[in-house]
Automatic annotation (TrEMBL):
Organism: Corynebacterium nasicanis
Descriptive protein name: Glycosyltransferase
InterPro entries hit by this protein: GlfT2_C, GlfT2_N, Nucleotide-diphossugar_trans
Domain Galactofuranosyltransferase-2 C-terminal: 447-643
Coiled-coil residues: none
Superkingdom of origin organism: Bacteria
Similarity remark: Belongs to the glycosyltransferase 2 family.
One Pfam family named in its UniProt record: Glft2_N
UniProt-listed SUPFAM superfamilies: Nucleotide-diphospho-sugar transferases
Signal peptide: none
Pathway terms, separated by semicolons: Cell wall biogenesis; cell wall polysaccharide biosynthesis
E.C. number: 2.4.-.-
Amino acid sequence: MLQRILLPRKGEPHDVRMLYLIEAEQNKERLTWQDRVTVTVPAGAEASFQTYFNAFPASYWRRWSQLEHVLLRMHVAGQASIEVYRSKIDGTRVAVAGELVTDDVAEFTIPLSHFEDGGWLWFDVTAETATTLTEAGWYADRAPGPQIMPDGTEVGPFDKRVTVGIPTFNRPHDAVAALQALGEDPLVDAAIDAVIMPDQGNQHPADEPGYDAAVAHFGERFHEFRQGNLGGSGGYSRIMYEALGEGAAGAPESPFILYMDDDIAIEPESILRAVQVGRYARTPIIVGGQMLNLQERSQLRTMGEVVQRHDFMWGEAPHSTYDHDFAKYPLGFTGHDGDEKDPDAKNSRDLHRRIDVDYNGWWMCMFPRVVSEQIGQPLPLFIKWDDTEYSLRAGKAGFPTVTWPGVAIWHMAWADKDDAIDWQAYFHLRNRLIVAALNHDGPVDGIITSLRKSTFKHLMCMEYSTLAIQIESMKDFLAGPDHLFDILESSLPRIAAIRKNYSDAVVVPSAADLPPASGAPGVPTKDIGGRLAKIKKVSWLLKGLKHSLSKEDPRHHETPQVNLSPSEARWFSLSRLDGATVTTAGNNGVAYRKRDRELAERLLKETWALQKEIGERFADLRESYRAAQPQLVSRESWRKIFE
């Protein structure tokens, strides 16, 4: 079994059910299911499994696996027509096979030859009588064979076994929920060799209701480690360290190590699918899970990402799409007639094209043991860019990363966080520069231009605390690689202390706790669209620059001019104000931003000088970071930290 046909959990709303099955609008009765793998289709009803979790991503299997065919198999109790389809790269549907089945096993053997650059497989059901489908799924026609390493040697074949690691920091409820989810499906549970949970906080899962039962379920397979707050890289590095048998856990030598965040909701089947992908791969690959939006659960946040070479910044992979809502635009929706005249028209065509990526986030990511043994541990970066760097390093060693459709978790979307301007901005910039030094071989000009553009945006938005900690990040990058382990645990407290000195970093519970806004007539708070948007914004930019160069009015430091939501807090609004509150992305308070021309000038001068120094010294820094990399990712270096 490569991929089971799954039904939604009981009680899921309609939009979430659309990730699993689509019931025809003309059906007089709904489909029913008592468990997640057995479904009854009423007589006369129709259903399609052309959905995110149940369609088969055939183009990925063709590109990365050992298989030339895939089998669709199910037990049919009753009489129903089973029709199998595939899609082309543009989403166009093509009939593959079909038959009327009566109380028998339906099986179809489908070649993967027509899926070079894209395409899915799926089936539809039309019930003549009430029909129950069991054991439905996509199967391999043979056991996995050996895999070819980059040096031409063979490894494997590998067993269906995995060690799952979940680092946690002050999310005891979420951590326990993740443990419970891992144990709820017998097939998933049977594949798990060990569960490793580094606990880095002061609110412990062990004190949470349900923890004891969840841990008892896994018995000797469960290993908890309490350690200082070493960030995501420290938590995930501990998992890899223990899973490779370097520590005290004595974990079994699983052929695969799977990372998961603690603040997620998981589809447990995704673990089995990732393991099967890893087992059937032609060469060892890192298998990434996609991110669904925890707040809008029918929404696929991202299909896959790359590092843009011109400025060494994250970006969407070619042909990918963000925030795709399957409840509004199912996998089979190719658009309406006349959409070609509307450049903003939505459809699902891009989801049928195979996406190639540079890396995958560690919200869910699986590593073959042979890869981790060869390339080492994560870098000591605390958070941000550690996942990117690991995949880039693996790619250089001949082990690509693949973000796999239908393997997914639900996670809070980035749009619901302020991580580009809060304390995490320090790690965003410092670690981006470190990873660029290790991997970027081209000119540094694009990176410096990107940094300067970002600097002016922060100034116009009165985000002075962000600039202050970015100054620290550049200083730490320029200091070289030798101190990275030394500041692994101390950077966050240092940055938090700096931010306390800036009003834009202080969250006030509500704008109602401040004087009523005095008003700012003529200041735009809504973006403009259309082909002439950039031209229209030129005047806004000139007015914003003129205002930013003038002396601020201190009255607006006591009484804000306006109260802005996150979507309204844009450069063209804030650059023409002296004081404004901005609601946090989490909607749990406001920050009072106060324009200070003297402070802005000082921050700009220091930032500009550091950016200039980075540009001038980047070639030498590149050499020093690359020379230090083997030591930074060695298990011996991490052993000293853990012990």
